[in-house]
Structure prediction request, 441 residues.
Amino acid sequence: MSIRIKLPDGSVREFEEEASIEDVAASISCGLENAVAGKLNGKLVDLSTPLQDGALVEIVTRDSAEGQKFKREKARGTGRIVALDAARGLAVIGMYLQHFALNETNGSIVSGNTTLLFVLCGGISYSIMAGRMLDRGMEPAAFRTRMLARAVFIDIIGYLLIMLNTPFGVILPAYAALFVLALVLIRRSTRVLVTTAVVLLAVSPPLMILGGSVLSKAYLLGDMAGGPMSALALAPAFVAGMAIGRFDLTRMRTALSLVGSGTIMVIVSKVLGTFVLPGLSRSFEEWLVSVQGTAGAEPDQYAIWPHNVAPPLWHNLLSIAPHSASTFQTMLGLGVAFLVLGLVCLVPQKNSAVLKPFAGVGRVALTMYAAQFVVIWTLEISGAKYDIGAIPFSDLFVAAMVTVTGWLIARLPAGPLETAMRRFDRAFSTLGPVTGTTTSR
Prediction:
């Protein structure tokens, strides 16, 4: 067997099978120095795969199409995606605005939409994490164990925050349930993920409305399918994120597709919400009254199930109000989430410094998410007024404070809760043996 090395000056050097790797390396080094006269700063060589008979090692510049493709393929395997962290950070900042500085100006942007953006980014991260771990040779059983452990940790944090009894809903128990339910989809095709997200967009609202009634007293089941803050209500966004995670977010085509599809979804939702849904909703509510009558007294909590639950709120099926989790509100929120994610992905890598402050918040999203409830609880205990939305520029002040705080915490190796979560799941899971040669997703 002979190996031919193609040099930038067009020459080809052959090495017999008996030649040592040291001889080959030395000859290549000498040839490159003579051929390009010290201009190797812009070169890339991929020697990560074994050479086959007659194979050539191509040397390409960073500015060439092959070089760009090489960098993208290598970048996808390791490291964090700045745009994804920035989008997650913007979601967390939006939650702080909603809880501390909500007004008419920012309300139409952040109310409900930030939750779906947060969950969408969670689905993307879940898909990327699954792909990287499985590509590195982790056994599927070990990955499932790690995700189950991580779900338990998030669930515990969620219930601790619920125990503070703040005025705002906590989505972490539903988020944890999605980590478990999504295990059945990690090895499915992208087409299956897209189809599942579309189907969930249609069937989740009626099922979660029914679950909000019949599962209202079953808290664990309620986290999975009991109303607009349940896993079933948030599942379309999470599964859509899993599908997006299969694509290269560093490519311009992916970013433009997200911006285009998000814009279309927002326009369609706004048109329906303005011209179609109001009249259709009134007709639907009149029909509901004629069929089941007006709502009576509160159900007897001591009656046997299901006589101790409130009737389903079917009129929310045609609502587009924030956190109603109807098909139309979810489509609007997903459209905004797609648009935000696409816009941050459009920022060139050379200008990615503008995203770093928001990406810092996204890197410690779990810590920052939990911190807002602790802050609200502390202010409630002290009797201080924390809703400052009526004060001019208060939303900008809150956004700046959250960004700076997240950036400072992100300068640590990891956020406090992120570190605790990794230690927790590693205590319950072990990496499987690495076998064979892995391929890029």
